[in-house]
Write a structure and sequence with these properties.
This protein has 157 residues and is of the alpha+beta class. Helices cover 24% and strands 17% of the residues. It starts with 16 loop residues before the first strand and ends with a helix.
Length: 157
């Protein structure tokens, strides 16, 4: 869709990984895809055909100077993703902190199991989201929650 705010969540399938870091303009925990994301997609997941989360979009574009929301900024673009595997310990630690088990590739769909009791004492309500949204969004919510909690603890009182 070419509108700045599509009514339906957009996705692109069949995108190939073009390069894996370390490489020119890629860190060791990054990989590059071609045309795959658009302005405002930063933080969005890259999925394997199996549904596993490969990484999170960190930067990209085509250098056209098109304004955010203009689909011309998305065509012929290069997009760089941060590897989820490189941040395995952080992601698993966030799941542990939230009292949830991650949905590992090849395991049964945990959304089909009875929901565990939600805990609200951490200030992060992610248990319900993990059952309704894809693994990537739940993992990202957990990572953001953990970062927010760490930030609270490190602030001077």
């Amino acid at each position: 869709e070419k509108s700045p705010n599509p009514d339906v969540r957009q996705q692109r399938s069949g995108v190939k990984v073009e390069e894996v870091g370390p490489a020119d303009r890629l860190g060791p925990a990054e990989f590059k895809l071609g045309e795959s994301g658009c302005s405002g997609d930063s933080g969005g997941p890259a999925f394997a055909e199996s549904g596993a989360v490969l990484g999170v979009l960190s930067r990209g574009g085509n250098g056209s100077g098109a304004k955010p929301g203009d689909f011309n900024a998305c065509t012929d673009a290069e997009n760089v993703f941060s590897s989820a595997a490189a941040h395995r310990d952080l992601i698993l630690g966030a799941y542990e902190r939230a009292g949830q088990a991650p949905w590992n590739e090849g395991d049964p769909d945990p959304r089909l199991a009875p929901p565990p009791p939600a805990e609200e004492d951490s200030g992060c309500a992610v248990a319900g989201r993990a059952r309704r949204e894809p693994f990537a969004l739940a993992a990202l919510a957990l990572v953001a929650c953990l970062a927010r909690l760490r930030g609270r603890r490190s602030r001077p009182k």
